[in-house]
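Weekly structure sync, notes
Attendees: PL, DS, HV (note-taker this week)

Item 1: Single-stranded-DNA-specific exonuclease RecJ
DS walked through the input record. Source organism listed as Salinicoccus cyprini. Sequence as pasted into the shared doc:
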Amino acid sequence: MYQSKYEWKVRRRSSDMPDDLIDKFKLNPLEQTILENRGYTTESDLERIYRPKTYDPSLVYGMADAVARIETAFDADERILIYGDFDADGITSTVLLLNALRRRTENVDYFIPSRIEDGYGPNRAVFEELVVGQYDLVITVDNGVSGGKEIAFLKSEGIETIVVDHHAFGDNVPDATIIHPDHPDGTYPFRSLAGVGITYKLVQALGLEAKEDIGWVAIGTVADLVPMIDENKKLVIEGLKVLNDSPPTGVHTLLRSAGHDGQMDEETIAFTLAPRLNATGRLGEAEIAVELLLESDSGVAYEQAMVVENMNLERKQLVETIFDEAKTQVEPDRQINIVYQDGWHPGVLGIVASKIVEQYGKPAIVLTLDDGIYRGSARSIEGVDLHGVLSEHSNHHHRFGGHAQALGVEVLQADIESFTQELTGYFDQLQLDLRPVKYIDYQIKQGNMTMKAFERFDRLKPFGQSFQSPVFLISNENISTIRQVGKDKSHIKLSVAQVGMDVIGFGYGHLVNEVSQGDAISLVGTVNVNVFNQSRTLQMMLQDVSVDSVQLIDMRSRTDQRFDIISSDDIFVIAEGREKKGENYYHFGEVLPFTSKTVVLRDLPESVDNLAYSLGGIHASKIISIFNQKEELFFTGIPKTETITELHRLIESADDGSIDLAKHAPALAGRLGIKMKFLKMSIDIMTDLEIIRVEDGIIYKDQGDSAWRLEESAYYQNLRNQLEAERLLKMSSSTELKDYLRTLISN
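Item 1 (cont.): predicted structure, written out as tokens:
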């Protein structure tokens, strides 16, 4: 059995879509099913997906006041500072507003705080050093609503602040003009804009909008994982058009340095642009990303892009190094993983925490020591409100904040052990089988998903948070082909002929050690169109795997004996009479442990009855068949009655009634037309039947029953049993062997 990483939940529709809407939006059955399963069944729901729109920026609460104050700054030639943030949303917000304001004034600068030195949001020390006495107006973008005290300081120094943000309001709301889509006093129609989205609304209200601005909105919106519906969807659709028609020099250069040369879509942003922009902020140098996006000279942009690319590589290496070190602290039996160490880079701990959650399926907290305080990030899984748990069940944290599934945590160095014990103890006593959830939109069966139907999904794009790319299930179908791919064989490619689809699994190369051709398997993933040699086929991108029955691995071939998947702790079943090397060794015909993880059938049994007795009714996750054997009978056969009769006649006709095998065995075999091995078997059968006796290498006639029957020889029966075992277990195809073993296990 191979357990899935996620808990699978297949979406089920709670209500049907009216026929008139199906006709109005020209939905095919595949689209209809997925939309119904996600709860999009009304006209307003479908409008937000298929016909999203933008809204008047004047509807944003406080927008008129913000515009008036900025116009005053223009007229008075005041000095303006844009105070941004170090993630992709904050970087693009800064670039967007800076470009827009520079269309009216040259007295505008920007500042991006360092994640490591300054932290997130308004910082009084920065304000004291860089703002007081140098600027008249500060505009925060993608931050500010939690900076009440810091912004109050600016006000005391005669500096006004406009907060442009989209994060949740807390208790420390600034006394300033706040531009926010979800303002508690506002009624803006769409309340889930990204930071760059609400910044764009300000630019529109100022009348400073340019065509290229919408491209920055698309990048920041996708990168910030805000809901991909309604206005966000419209902004990304329009932004992608601009990015593909006339990409900014910095964006084009960054994509080329990353090896991307083609059309941009939301996945290009999410997996190529956003990680690189975020990498600069994680390493404390987000300004290089801002400068790159502002650059119009391709030569300069190339140099900057290579710096960013190298920073992204450094970020990846940091993540892998810390992740490898963190894994050594993970205790598999724990229901929450809390790991900490001095010297870990603080900028990547959130990614490491996410990787730990991804691998182990349980909440994770990753901390590093900084001046007597362990600081870091926590990530949880669906259904586990880690923020709530810390609020109610932990007395040893110094400070924390964030959301149910992603938050920052600080713990005093003196309290770290108590914090760990208290939190792990709480989770362990719940006795939960914690696993993240994977929601499935549609089960693929034979003939229910065609290329033509799938291509209609382009109308649903772009996908993103709250409206993610559909997830599909292939349930309990047989593998047609399977092989490892990639330079290091770390990926897998398999085909499922029953549904006519290939599957590619990045990082799933180990599956070849778990399943093989003909095995039943369940697969979950997204689907895309694969183009190869001008042929277009549907292909699943694997996200999770489950094998419900025992895994049967055929290692009989000497060229396919992957001993690296065998552990010394596995159950070994060896030939009757062979020496046991430990308590985990059993002979065929002995009772095996009822529940076993891996059973290795090392040798060929003397009979299939002994194999059946040992395997009957056991519960094993994996059975590996090797069936090693010193001598094979299948190609030589075993003696028949005619051979024994003729040999008996020759012995009877001997002059002195005896034959010296040392002298005459080769001639005797020649007379019979058999090989020496076959002669030896015949002599042993006759001895067993007491037709002859052998003493000191000499055959003598015996006075046994002249009416002997071959079947009465126990030795002959053993040979027959071995021959049958070879036929069933050594000479059968892989599929035939697995089918046979399954029948034994089920009995």
